[in-house]
Amino acid sequence: KAVVSTQSTGVHGEQSEMQRLRSSLKREYEDTANPAEIFAPANNEEIVLNFRGEKMAKIVGRLASKKPKVGDKISGVLVKRGFNYHIVSPDELEHYTDLKQGVILQKQSIPFMAPFSLLHHCLQQLAGTVEQSEQGGKSCLKVFDSVLVMQDHNKIMIEWEGSEMGDMYADAVLTLCLQIEANPQAIKQSSLRSITQDKDKTTFEDRVEKLLIELYGEENINYQPKLKYITVTLDGEKAVINLKSYQVQCSNESLHQMVSTAIKRLHNALTPVNVPIIPGYGT
């Protein structure tokens, strides 16, 4: 009764006594909502027990704040306790289980003799946006919203939270730092013409259109030269590029990042900026 078993099997008993026990148990459970199946097989007699293949999981915490509809995808951590299953948000694990979520903070230090301003410029070319700050009197640069680069005398410290994306961004920053340290002379660039003139702007707009067509296909690109807009449609998501400011508007973060990066790299390739001559590295 305590187990509430739906199937019971009696074995290793005298046949008549086992049949009496089986009949007694059937009478006891016949008035219940789900009467139990009682088996008393003879030696070498095969019996078949049927079990439900599906398992039910209860959604708890923040994930349960909105009732899901058929077809909705729910992302969380499946927790099993005994015969019960629960789905919880990763950041709520410690509220519903004895588990605690941790973060691995990784650091790497490498020698760096080149000017920190040169590294700042190169990181802008790599990531686009670079946040400047100071920590403990040391200059810091933050790129990709996740990787911190800190100046420390003749070396730099790279710090990031361990994750698939964080490790990938940190590898890119580390590779750039090593390239600058190995050959800073090759990083210098001469001053080239600006594309602020109308003719050059038109050329750049055409190249943006060709680049996006190459990346996403002509059927997914809508170029409106009069309105100075290009729209990229991918898997139902739209990214709108303003050809006057080169700003990208998109609700999908992944598509926004891909399109923005492509345009920034094309812009940087066609319009190099002036880099001052660095003392000690030639003219």
What is this structure, in a nutshell?
With 283 residues, the chain is α+β, with helices and mostly antiparallel strands.
Low-confidence stretches: 189-199, 272-283
Averaged pLDDT: 79
Count every beta strand, where a strand is a DSSP E run of 2 or more residues.
Answer: 14
Structural shape: elongated
- Please give the share of residues in helix: 25-40%
N-to-C order of helices and strands: EHEEEEHEHEEEEHHEEEEH
Spatial sequence of strands, sheet with the most strands: 6-10-9-8-7
Distance between the termini: 90 Å
Q: What is the beta-strand fraction?
A: 15-25%
Q: Count of helices?
A: 6
Task: Please describe the biggest sheet, giving its number of strands, its sense, and whether it closes into a barrel.
Answer: 5 strands, antiparallel
Keywords summarizing the entry:
283 residues, alpha+beta, 5-stranded antiparallel beta sheet, 4-stranded antiparallel beta sheet, 6 helices, 31% helix, disordered C terminus
